[in-house]
Amino acid sequence: MKLTKYIRKLLRKNENASSAKAERVFVRGCAIPHRSSAGLRRLVSPCSRCSKKTLPFILSVFVIWQVLIGGLIVLGEQYFPTTMEYLYTEKQVVSPRWLWSRANFDGIHYLDIARKGYGIYQQAFFPLYPKLIKALTPFFYGRDLVAGLFVSTVSLFFALLIFYKLIRLDYQKSIAKRAVVYLLIFPTAFYFAAVYTESLFLMLVLASFYFARTKHWWLAGIFGLLATSTRLPGVFLFPALLVEWWQQGATSHQPPATRKKPTTTHRSPITLIPLLFIPLGLIGYMSYLATKFQDPLLFLHVQPYFGAGRTATKLVLLYQVFWRYLKMLVTCEKLTPTYFVVILEFFSGTAFLVLSLFAWLRRWYPYVTFMALAYITPTLTGTFSSLPRYALVLFPGFILLAIWAEKYRWVRILYPLIAIPLLIISLLFFTRGYWLA
Questions:
Q1: Using one digit for the tens of pLDDT, what is the confidence trace for 43-66?
Q2: What is the per-residue pLDDT for 19?
Q3: How many domains does the chain have?
Q4: Would you say residue 10 lies in a domain?
Q5: How far apart are CA 147 and CA 139, in angstroms?
Q6: pLDDT of res. 307
Q7: Which is nearest to 185 in space by CA: 197, 177, 196?
Q8: Which of 338, 325, 347, 374 has its CA nearest to residue 186?
Q9: SS percent in the chain: helix, strand, coil, step 5
Q10: Residue 250: Cβ within 10 Å count
Q11: What is the spatial distance between Cα 428 and Cα 81, in angstroms, rounded to a whole number?
């Protein structure tokens, strides 16, 4: 009798284990609880066990990076020559004065939109970021510059946290930590600490992907909508998350116990409804432009007025852009700020094309969809101008670099050796009024 009871107990235990296994879905090699609200809450909650271990790392890296960026800006003000040609903040009433350099170039346009609404040619800048600045300015006693930096700073912190947790869905801690650091030492990462949309946009994109990966489709759609209200590439989340939706429903990503009877619950059309929110940010802005300025595509048509060799009347293919830059590398005057920008743009264009191809080879299809479209779209204007800054949101590239660095010692040495000096030079150029990206 005792033996019979023991056997029944073992059989019952095995049945429970099998049913628990069948309730899990596997996405890119990572097991995620399916339809378990408690499990998803633990994954998303900032008070989770994982977050308690993560927060000290993210906070320490964030604070150290902010201190180093601030210190370099102070040194640049003391020892680096200034050009007044593009130092717009010198021509505007922006306080406090010691933060002027963080609102150069596009920054002053965002502040101007927050104060007075859209002026001439400013329709190139999408509305969410200046709206947030305007809404928060009263809390900082009318100092809109501080409000803008507050939005960027808070957004960066959460972007780093979400980036870490997104990577941890698939890879170990060392890769996640390395990817976060590699993002922060990229040559144009200082834009995260400026009155620019980079921090906010990256946070929204990462949040949309993260919630899609964890099957919070409504949250993924809402964050996607906010992303398209911040920058045009946000709309590429729509096709990327469609691929994610399809991939999650594929039988190859279900555990073996459930492959014999594929279900349609993971690929239900109902779960597509939240993704339809994503294009609404762009559609809403186009409707506003059509009503106010009688041109729904005005954000594209004003691009040539910002210089940088952009064209809005025809499409330029990628090989033509590379050919143009090869000629500039040969013909441009060396040892000038302009030549440094050309090198940085060519380096960014080449590096992220290669990274996109390797991401595709790894079958990161949702990531590659967003990355490739966000990469190729600005090049259609005939230039890599601003691509070093746009590359900051091409986050799969930094995951790949971290993976390679885990395997190859030369990557661990070469990337920081190149990126950190370029970051210092680029930061000094930007804060002293030299146009960069």
A1: 445 444 455 778 999 999 999 999
A2: 38
A3: 1
A4: no
A5: 8
A6: 64
A7: 177
A8: 347
A9: 75, 0, 25
A10: 12
A11: 9
Tell me how far apart the alpha carbons of residues 87 and 85 are, in angstroms, rounded to a whole number.
6
d(CA 337, CA 85): 13
Tell me, yes or no, whether 224 lies in a domain.
yes
| Domain assignment of residue 38, yes or no | no
- Cis bond leading into 127, ω under 30°? no
Residues 288-303 as b or e (16 or more Cβ within 10 Å = b): ebeeeeeebebbebbb
CA distance 104 to 435: 9
Spatial separation of the C-alpha atoms in residues 348 and 355, rounded to whole Å: 10
Contacts of 99 (CB under 8 A, 6+ apart): 145, 146, 149
CA–CA dist 398, 199 (Å, integer):
16
Tokens of 154: 């808070």
Residue 225 lies in a domain: yes
Q: What is the number of other CB atoms lying within 10 angstroms of the CB of residue 310? A: 18
Query: 10-residue block means of pLDDT along the chain (437 residues)?
Result: 48 44 38 39 48 86 96 87 62 70 89 92 94 96 94 98 96 96 97 97 98 95 97 97 89 41 58 93 96 93 73 80 92 87 94 96 96 94 91 97 96 96 94 82
DSSP summary character for residue 24: E
- pTM for the structure as a whole: 0.85
CA distance 279 to 234: 8
Cα dihedral 321, 322, 328, 334 sign = positive
Q: Would you say 87 and 433 are in contact if contact means Cβ atoms under 8 Å apart?
A: yes
Host domain of residue 67: 61-253+265-431
The residue with tokens 């102070």 is 74
